[in-house]
């Protein structure tokens, strides 16, 4: 293994080579800061997870691994089993906060179960085919990819749910499953073309996967999950399992605790809107603290590297965490000021909701303006009036579109050399990649690749299946014409280049769903259902492309053969499509009224599927009346073009400043697309967890990482996996046992809920009185 001097100079990182205890032929490059080298040498076991300050440094690590089996009985059994469990993510689509089964939990539990299977099962005779040796890294990676794929709820399922809830259009089960699966496969076909640009090169390092790679390596190369750590995992798993039911069921006020709201006692709307966040669409949660890990884990506070988040060093290192925080704090200011300034004339509407409203603030009567053949009834508009968005939802859509426009300019201004290197001479279409000097990629060349024609065939077949499903709607309804499917699919392929590059280099995803819906509104005027379906081929396809690209990179890091990565991804998608649809039908059938309610409850909310319905009516049926220039919401589509110019002043300052100055570095690493995206991040569902995320993130990624590095290296990621797993298992049980996912909702005794509120209120007043020096309460 060799490291170029330039790499050491540029990163300030030095290599520490250690021989693998598991494979004598392996050499692992571990990168730590210079001042920690002595500590690592003295206690290697405590640093089993390498400290990597710049995530792309992981690309310098090269492992020479033997040809370990990846497709075994263990990997197939655990892969399908965990994929089925991960598919319960469908529940979160209809909860107050969207989530997914933690990839970290799947990783740890797969290791525990895989190791147990190796220990328990015989390995002699014919048994050796079922138990070929110790549970290895490649089996493990295949399971992780398959289960995480199944946990990614397809947009197709959400669209099918919206058709069922708001249009009473119920697709045949086979048509629905094929529709979901085909739209995912379209993304995989596009990903095959983009591998040269977004998988093979070193700059495409996918920061979100660095902790996954490090943990996988440490488990199999260093035996990091010993008996003591496994015991720690199960203790934490059990503790959060028995705790999480308390804020979820008997004491829901513990979901989000706002001292300011409780002191105000509901007297002022402004206080609830700004500081509330415990119920669906209650508020944006400023300074609200959550005790529910199900909510807290949405910010992945134990996983995302903090890198002293609030200091100047973030900008010197190019951390994308600072733009995330800057955008969210700006969101508190922008959303509140716009609402109370009556921007978009939404002051008399609810503070937060993704539904549509009429002029009097009631839920918009969409059935009155839609004909039986699902087109606009123009004569009814004069009576019913035009629909309206809440101010916060309109601002959010505008910010998402600003972010998309800024992302395009940001890519060309700051990353033109990479674009030119990748696309010059159309090299990305060629099979040979000799000009890619990435150590991981060179190691992967010993494995046969998936041929380009396979990706092309998958792409074409998926389009054909998608078109066929669209023409097989209930009652002969054509859900979307063939030419439109082809157009949006190719548009998605082009925009995937921009989105993929941002994800590959920063770890953040830029949403294009509102841009797609606006485009569809002008292509299909007066037709709500094609506008809704445009999300499948314009939005969902691009994100499925990113999922496969990330998994291909994970396979490249762990040396999983590309064909195995591809096969496990497809298998996970198929399992996910079947289970997603099955669970969706069960939940929608048993909770229709709540899911159609604009506000929702603490338990169930239809805010995700309501977005698609709102877009189908506002943009699909009434796009020209609402979004054309000079109309009430014309700024929302125009924001895409405005966003193109936002990065220019910052780039000009950088261009004409001293390259070594702090100002120039600040301009270069101020990631405007991320800041703009997170300004519009908050006006959805529950927001009581973000302060807790920040506190836990600082404690874990700064205090523990710097003050207790040995404990951090041993237990931090195991702690995160145990908390995620225990909380997700109990929520799954509660959803079907008492929350009504199976049709039998059991409310907790009302007197206990009232007592819990009184207890929390009295406790809050006591604390406030002590802080203020007041001896008595009235």
TrEMBL record:
Origin superkingdom: Eukaryota
Transmembrane segments: 71-92, 104-121, 141-166, 173-191, 197-219, 231-246, 322-342, 453-473, 485-510, 633-654, 716-739
Annotated localization: Membrane
InterPro entries from the UniProt entry: Oligpept_transpt (IPR004648), OPT (IPR004813)
Keywords per UniProt: Membrane, Peptide transport, Protein transport, Transmembrane, Transmembrane helix, Transport
Family annotation (Pfam families): OPT
GO cellular component: membrane
Membership in a protein family: Belongs to the oligopeptide OPT transporter family.
Record's protein name: OPT oligopeptide transporter
Organism: Mycena alexandri
Source organism phylogeny: Eukaryota, Fungi, Dikarya, Basidiomycota, Agaricomycotina
């Amino acid at each position: 293994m060799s490291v170029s001097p330039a790499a050491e100079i540029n990163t300030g990182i030095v290599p520490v080579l250690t021989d693998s205890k598991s494979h004598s032929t392996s050499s692992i490059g571990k990168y730590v800061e210079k001042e920690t080298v002595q500590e690592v040498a003295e206690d290697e076991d405590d640093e089993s997870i390498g400290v990597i300050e710049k995530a792309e440094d992981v690309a310098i690590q090269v492992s020479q691994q033997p040809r370990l089996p990846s497709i075994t009985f263990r990997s197939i059994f655990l892969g399908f089993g965990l994929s089925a469990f991960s598919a319960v993510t469908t529940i979160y689509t209809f909860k107050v906060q969207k989530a997914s089964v933690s990839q970290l939990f799947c990783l740890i539990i797969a290791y525990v179960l895989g190791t147990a299977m190796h220990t328990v099962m015989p390995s002699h005779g014919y048994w050796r085919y079922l138990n070929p040796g110790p549970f290895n890294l490649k089996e493990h990676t295949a399971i992780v990819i398959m289960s995480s794929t199944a946990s990614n709820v397809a947009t197709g399922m959400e669209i099918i749910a919206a058709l069922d809830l708001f249009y009473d259009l119920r697709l045949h089960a086979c048509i629905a499953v094929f529709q979901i699966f085909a739209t995912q496969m379209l993304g995989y076909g596009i990903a095959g073309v983009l591998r040269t640009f977004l998988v093979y090169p070193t700059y495409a390092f996918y920061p979100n996967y660095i902790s996954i790679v490090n943990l996988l390596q440490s488990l199999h190369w260093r035996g990091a999950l010993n008996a003591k750590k496994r015991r720690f995992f199960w203790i934490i798993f059990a503790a959060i399992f028995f705790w999480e039911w308390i804020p979820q069921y008997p004491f829901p006020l513990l979901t989000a605790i706002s001292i300011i709201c409780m002191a105000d006692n509901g007297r002022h709307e402004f206080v609830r809107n700004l500081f509330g966040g415990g119920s669906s669409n209650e508020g944006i949660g400023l300074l609200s603290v959550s005790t529910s890990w199900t909510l807290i884990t949405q910010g992945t506070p134990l996983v995302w590297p903090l890198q002293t988040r609030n200091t100047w060093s973030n900008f010197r290192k190019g951390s994308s965490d600072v733009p995330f925080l800057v955008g969210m704090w700006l969101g508190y200011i922008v959303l509140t000021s716009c609402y109370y300034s009556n921007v978009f004339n939404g002051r008399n509407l609810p503070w937060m909701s993704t539904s549509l409203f009429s002029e009097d603030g009631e839920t918009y009567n969409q059935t009155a303006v839609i004909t039986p053949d699902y087109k606009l009834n123009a004569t009814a508009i004069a009576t019913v009036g035009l629909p309206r968005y809440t101010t916060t939802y309109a601002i959010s859509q505008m910010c998402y579109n600003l972010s998309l426009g800024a992302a395009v300019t940001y890519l060309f201004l700051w990353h033109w050399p990479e674009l030119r290197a990748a696309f010059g001479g159309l090299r990305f279409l060629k099979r040979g990649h000799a000009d890619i000097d990435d150590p991981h990629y060179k190691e992967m060349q010993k494995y046969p690749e998936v041929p380009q024609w396979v990706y092309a065939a998958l792409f074409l077949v998926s389009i054909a299946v998608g078109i066929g499903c669209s023409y097989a709607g209930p009652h002969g309804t054509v859900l979307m014409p063939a030419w439109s499917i082809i157009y949006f699919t190719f548009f998605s392929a082009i925009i995937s280049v921009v989105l993929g590059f941002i994800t590959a280099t920063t770890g953040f995803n830029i949403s294009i769903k509102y841009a797609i819906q606006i485009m569809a509104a002008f292509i299909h005027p007066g037709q709500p259902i094609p506008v809704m379906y445009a999300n499948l081929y314009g939005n969902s396809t691009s994100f499925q492309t990113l999922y496969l690209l990330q998994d291909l990179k994970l396979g490249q890091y762990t040396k999983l053969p590309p064909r195995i990565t591809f096969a496990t991804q497809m298998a996970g998608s198929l399992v996910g499509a079947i289970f997603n649809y099955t669970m969706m039908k069960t939940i929608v059938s048993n909770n229709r009224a709540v899911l159609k309610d604009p506000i929702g409850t603490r338990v169930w909310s239809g805010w995700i599927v309501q977005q698609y319905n709102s877009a189908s009516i506002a943009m699909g049926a009434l796009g020209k009346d609402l979004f054309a220039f000079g109309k009430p919401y014309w700024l929302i589509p125009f924001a895409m073009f405005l966003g193109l110019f936002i990065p220019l002043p910052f780039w000009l300052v950088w261009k004409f400043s001293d390259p070594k100055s702090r100002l120039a570095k600040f301009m270069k690493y101020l990631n405007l697309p991320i800041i703009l995206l997170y300004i519009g991040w908050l006006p959805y569902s529950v927001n009581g967890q973000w302060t807790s995320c920040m506190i836990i993130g600082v404690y874990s990624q700064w205090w523990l990482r710097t003050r207790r590095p040995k404990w951090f290296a041993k237990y931090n990621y195991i702690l995160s996996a145990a908390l995620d797993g225990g909380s997700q298992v109990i929520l799954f049980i509660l959803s079907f046992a008492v929350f009504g996912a199976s049709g039998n909702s059991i409310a907790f005794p009302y007197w206990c809920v009232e007592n819990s509120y009184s207890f929390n209120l009295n406790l809050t007043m006591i604390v406030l009185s002590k802080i203020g020096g007041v001896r008595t309460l009235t």
